Amino acid sequence: MDFVPLYLSVKLACVSTCVLILLAAPLAYMLAYSRFAGKSLLEALINMPLALPPTVVGFYLLVVMGPKGTVGRIWESATGSPLLFTFLGITIASIVYSLPFAIQPMKAAFEKIDRRLLESAYVLGLSRFSTFLKVIIPNSIAGIAASAILVFIHSMGAFGVLLMVGGSIPGETKVASIAIYEATEALNYREAGLMSLTLVPISYAFLLLINRLNRSKSHGA
């Protein structure tokens, strides 16, 4: 069995998870505690990947990141290389596609924090940023961990959006899900079966971890 697609999937999932945890935390905080015009519109926009087929998300990313798209044109003029059909390209696609899975668990965890803790922090003179780091984050570890696990699993299983943006370049964009599809299409069921069998216990272990986090959170409530 070729382990390169599996390695690329794990690498993609790790990079996407790290970036999204850092990106989603302030966004989830803003959505949980701030009031501003257009908040519902922003939240609906962030959650669009949940409602749209992956190929639709992939198509619009293909247009935006292509040589004639705004992002693709700026990137190519700055670096001299295209953004599409690269590992960076599928990483951006994975981040956009998995953003709701990062934000929702964090937002729910932030909203469950007793507001009296926040008020006490403000009375003691902590700024909003310090309160976020010293009060909200420590009291939301289970939600943040659940967010990271969901993003990792979702990134590992992404297919349509990655195929649209990255194609199937061996060693660059051919992740495990695409390798399984191509092996099945070529009637190479042994290769597809082995690759699938490798992914099943990984996903199952992470789902068990999420269940354990949910149980410990409910017992602690």
Helix content percent band: over 70%
| CATH homologous superfamily descriptor | MetI-like
Instruction: Give the CATH architecture.
Output: Orthogonal Bundle
Radius of gyration: 20 Å
Verbal overview:
With 221 residues, this protein is an all-alpha fold. It has one domain (4-220): MetI-like (MetI-like fold, Orthogonal Bundle), CATH 1.10.3720. It has 12 helices and no strands.
Q: Can you describe this structure in just a few lines?
A:
The protein has 221 residues and is mainly alpha-helical.
Keywords:
mainly alpha, 78% helix, 221 residues, MetI-like fold, single chain
What is the strand and helix layout of this fold?
Elements: H1 4-33, H2 39-46, H3 48-51, H4 54-65, H5 70-79, H6 87-111, H7 115-123, H8 128-136, H9 141-157, H10 160-166, H11 176-185, H12 189-220
